[in-house]
Amino acid sequence: MKSIKMSVGFLICLMLFGLSNEEAFAESTWTSKCSSYGEIKPNQNPTFQHINCLLTNAALEGNIPPEVVKAVASKENGAWKQFDEKGQPVISKDNGIGVMQITNQLGYDQEKLKFDINYNIQAGIEILNSMYQRTDLPKIKGTGRDIIENWYFPVMAYNGTKPSNSPLYQSSGLKNAEAYQEHVFAFIEKDSYMNNAKLGQFSFNVADFNYDPTSRENIVFKTMEYTLTDKMHTSAYQFKKGDKVSITADTVKLRSQPSTSSTAKSVTNDTTLIIEGNFVYDQSLTSVNQFVWYPVKTEDQKVAGYISSAYITKKLGAPAAKVMWGKTELKLGQIGKVTILSDTSLVKLESDGSLTTVRPMKKGEEYRVYSYNSNHGGLYGVGGGSYVKKSTNVKYETPSKSKLALLAQ
Length: 409
Hints:
By secondary structure, the protein is α+β, with helices and mostly antiparallel strands. About 20% of the residues lie in helices and about 20% in strands.
């Protein structure tokens, strides 16, 4: 991880609650959830599955998909080692420390970052969270922090929003496969999904980013909201007992124990499975599998066993009926709509605060509103970084309680 600054929001939270970093960490409960592995010995790396447990529970407590945290640790540290073969802290050439390679974070105890693996992991979680909370980074429209793809830009920022991490090469417009976040997302596909899933792809354009490729100055993001047409992915760590899941591979094996070395029975992808309890880690302490295992049974209860989280997804029910509101469908995340009363313009808010015209808007058209900006007398955010200026040319309405109730069903 390159040099970054702790978020103002996180520091404010600490001050509001009167907590130092030390006290905030002391309040954490995630470390106790891995107590079955025993105590961590000084200057010794825990087993891989012990660290798998630590990273998983730290991520869950931090409300980050564990798939994301594990992949960041893999990109930063490879084998998830806090100490080298001599028992000394792992420190990179750019002074990144430990499993999460914490660099130039003066708000943290530097010695604890070196010798306390729990502290090191917690620091990484806090920094990732502060990156997600940044308002100068793009997001995916209508999604939240439970969507793995929505961590694309926070993961980039964990390493630095420098030209080297631009999603596209400015000169050619080609994808920058060497960008830090691209490597992290490749780790997610390889280790959490066993290459059995492809994460949703962004439709980038070179005009989305403003930067000098010869400079170390940060990228300025021109497009702040994206819509993905590919399937997006929620974390596989949120299944509860009784949930029905589908199999994502043609054939998978239900293991008698949470281990690839145990006996197995094969089931096909037309089989519905029911989650029987909480996930568990691989039974073999020498296993380097990052996924977890869920106890499951078939609907007819004839077959039961453990299945890797890499091969299941929540089973979808019947598609929900559309909730229409005038000419448009009401969507989650929508706060209102505007109806065009007289011809006006769709505008974009530039980084310098000015407005530029995107295209004309015709009388009678309706647009969903997802946000409101008080600049320029009021701007209704209609998605894609575009706005409708508040005026007598438009009518703004909010959805009724009955409409919202239908949407929530």
